[in-house]
Amino acid sequence: MKIAIGADHGGFLLKAELVTYLEQTGHTPGDLGTFSGEAVDYPDYSRAVAQAVRGQKADRGILICGSGVGASVAANKFPGIRAAVCHDTFSVRQGVEDDDMNVLCLGARVIDLELAKELIAYGFDPRKTYFIIDQIYTNIYNLAVKLSKKINLSEIKATYGYKNEENIGLHFYPAVQAAHILFPQEKHGIKNVLVPIGPDEDAHIRISRDVARKEGYNLPSILHIFFLPGTDGEKMSKSRNNAIFLRDSTEEIRKKVNKAFSGGRDTEEEQRRLGAMPEKDVSLFYLTKLFLNEKESEKLIHEYKTGKILSKDVKHMLTEELIRFTHDFQEKLKKVNIKDLEKSILRNE
Q1: Strand, helix or coil for residue 139
Q2: Residues annotated as catalytic (active site), given as ranges
């Protein structure tokens, strides 16, 4: 079968895996791009795949973006295209056989295989790392149902602030979180469990520890982590374009760091004379928290505060560290394939 396949930068790596898989299974993929991780507009690739299917240059089409939704919406604007987002085999089969779907849309960041690959590339040992992807290891919900019997509605409302008008899924979700946290004890008898969490996830761990007491589990331990601010000093958000991603290109990193909020003075002369304000500088914060040891951090802060170095020097240091780090990550990511993940992804028995 001839299959036109296209993706934006969010689906670029998954597309490469699928092209190889299609070739290995006897299909003829027509790769319509994108061909790098540089930021692009997904509607362009929706158009290319839609036109290939409409023009009978391909029997079917596959589109990949971050969520799959945007690509689907864009593709369905073309007459004769019936595109749908599917992340399980049942939906795909129903879509093709009952609804005549001719373009499959996938969300690379929804499927979670991409995230799993990134974690392996980041340094997790695939021989000692296990991923629970709920769409694949659906048995996790059996544990969630079991634990939910120990959680009452009053506790959920008091902990999360939910109201009676909230949907039932929100009230059940803490049981799902507890299932993930207590799974190592339930399934493998691993009693010493450490859970790194952000400040906004503290409610989940409190519910989990309460359930653990009632079910006779050891209480999971907690490692609180802090949030990095965005490059503008505000909360990091993709929509604000104030985050630096591991897949960013060298040029993207340079642009983002150059725009980062600085603790410098209005002029070079003034900064040499008065020194900078380290506590306000985002680039300095990134350097001291992510790349420098304590002694190096103290030395840099002192030199910055006394005017020996300027904001541009700090930004240059951060840029070089980020480029080195992301380049190393991206090279490792290229070497991770689906086979590397197979043994790490838990599946139903």
Answers
A1: coil
A2: 65
